[in-house]
Amino acid sequence: MITWRKRHLARTGTRRPGRGSRPERHELADLLDGLGDDQWDRRSLCAGWRVRELRPT
Question: To 10 degrees, the CA torsion angle through 24, 22, 46, 40?
Fold first, then answer.
């Protein structure tokens, strides 16, 4: 299974976030990896946007 984290790391290559943000990025990656397809397709709080369209790239 290809997770959000694996796709993100493949895209960013060797670029790494600053030290202060690393734990927060891992926490976000864990949260996003845990979302099911139905959760990705839910409407977000931003009118006209789904969760899928607001994910970090």
Answer: -90
